[in-house]
Description:
This protein is an alpha+beta fold. The chain is built from 1 helix and 4 strands; from the N terminus they run βββαβ. It has one domain: 2-Layer Sandwich (Nucleotidyltransferase, domain 5), CATH 3.30.420.10. The protein has one helix at residues 55-68, and strands at 13-20, 33-39, 45-50, 73-75. Strand 2 (33-39) and strand 3 form a beta hairpin. The radius of gyration is 14 Å and the shape is globular.
Amino acid sequence: MRNKIIVSRKNEQWEADIVDMQEFARSNKGFKYIVTIIDCFSKYAYAYPLKNKGANEVTNIFKKLFLEVCPEKLRTDRGKEFEN
């Protein structure tokens, strides 16, 4: 059973993960991963392609996004790419 997420407004909490799309890299200009970010309240989703999932690349995605909008909380699966 999944933990219930209770939020009452937009940008209160986001969930982020990385989708592995390596098998499609040849037909996607070398992009192997997709960073997915979902607002838990509105269900609005962001998706950003990556050629590799190193911490620097992932951090750059969040830096650019946070210039526009920033959540109160960000939840991830604690993968190594999210540790910095």
